[in-house]
Amino acid sequence: MTTSIRESRVAGPARVSTGAGQSIAVLRIATGLLFLWAFADKAFGWGYATPSANAWLNGGSPTKGFLSGVHSGPFAETLRGWAGAWWADWLFMIGLLGIGVAVVLGIGLRVAAVTGTVMMLLMWVAEWPPARFTDTGEATRSTNPVIEYHLIYALVLIVLAAVYAGHTWGLGRRWEQLAGDHRWLL
Known about the structure:
This protein is mainly α.
């Protein structure tokens, strides 16, 4: 009878100091709350970025205001065409809610990082920071042609997933057990 030991080829999380883990946990929770706030304000119209009359629950469109104002970049016409489309509203809102919940709880951070990065890149393309002027000739008010806040949010999501940020003050360890061999769910 022979026995074999299967060597694991999947690296687990590296040990980090308590202070580093807690700092990353604070960043994770704050980032998740950023997405949840955007969802809640657009859904309920709490009067910050979204007036009550424009709330999604009152028939408003979460994408119309942002996308209809796209006036620069190579995809401006396409993005304006998506403004207010039911599928764009639903995808955007489900994305904000799903990413926010996953990041706050520290579960599914890889999926949240991928979907959040796609969302942030699309929003970066919509704002098109490299442009100094809109297609109508007005100044875009872009402050940096490359590094813009949507890219920073995408990088934060990627880092949170890479360092297993859900293991401190989150449900990441339990989620890892549930995911088993399906590492992409981490």
